[in-house]
Amino acid sequence: MTDATVQTPATLATTGAGSSQGKWLKWLVHLVVVLFIAFWFMPILALLISSFRPQIDTASSGWWTVFARPVLTADNYLLALDQLRVGASLGTSLAIAIPSTILTVILSMIGAYALVRMKFPGRTALSLLLVALLITPPQITLVPLLRLYNAVGLSGTIPGIWLYQVGFTLPFGIFLLRGFLASIPQELYESAYLDGASELRTFVSIVLPLSRPIMASLGIMAFLWSWNDLLIPLLFMGGSGMSPPITVNLAGLVAQTTQGQGPLMAATFLSVAVPILLIISLQRYFVRGILGGAVKG
């Protein structure tokens, strides 16, 4: 015979009380999370509503009054895209951010794989140099690089900004990906070598598919850093005939008051809509990649 636990009234009452406390704690956690989401989303909601309100309403009342008097118009977006050239600025920002992100992810992946899998003299010193570059402020290189860009003809060009942003994002990218690649089991590499796979084949067929979450995480961060960058495009694209990036355009619009707040709100929302869509679409990869690269290796 097996011993059976006797359920006394006191035990049942204790179990019921514990279950009730667990439910209340669960609901409390959910409430706190919902409140955090609401506080985080409220500025974006205010920006979206203000971008659709007429100029006279925006100047005379707060955005929350739209719920009592819902008067909306798309004139602010038409003005922002037509007269303020926000569409061209968005195109310039995409032309900067997308290639910069792709180059950062590809070069970081190659560099991290080399540090993890390849044996060569100076590998430890190179790893320490990458860590040192993480704490080096990029601002100290602005004057020398401006002089170099003026000498070689890269000043005022988009490829010049690619070189700067990729160069100063690579140390972090290699550091992040290195921790993830070091956690891949050694047996996978040995199995690939036994099957006759070359180093390139192993990298393409095994390492890259396994690294998609961490590559997506790095891509999101690199894109946000490039998209939100104001100082580098302002300095390195000064005097060029191209439309300025959206950050530079918005900085100029803030100093102007002739167009009113409505077009500025519309232009600002368009500038934040792209990163928000990117984060929402890739959030599951972002969380998995950051956890995998931060705690292993």
UniProtKB/TrEMBL annotation:
Gene3D superfamilies: MetI-like
The entry's keywords: Cell membrane, Membrane, Transmembrane, Transmembrane helix, Transport
Domain ABC transmembrane type-1 stretches: 90-283
Subcellular localization, as worded in the UniProt entry: Cell membrane
Coiled-coil portions: none
Topology versus the membrane: Multi-pass membrane protein
InterPro entries linked: MetI-like (IPR000515), MetI-like_sf (IPR035906)
Record-annotated membrane-spanning stretches: 27-49, 93-116, 128-149, 161-181, 202-225, 231-252, 264-286
Entry's family note: Belongs to the binding-protein-dependent transport system permease family.
PANTHER family to which the protein is assigned, alphabetical: ABC TRANSPORTER PERMEASE PROTEIN MG189-RELATED-RELATED (PTHR43744), OSMOPROTECTIVE COMPOUNDS UPTAKE PERMEASE PROTEIN GGTD (PTHR43744:SF4)
Protein name per UniProt: Carbohydrate ABC transporter permease
Organism: Devosia rhizoryzae
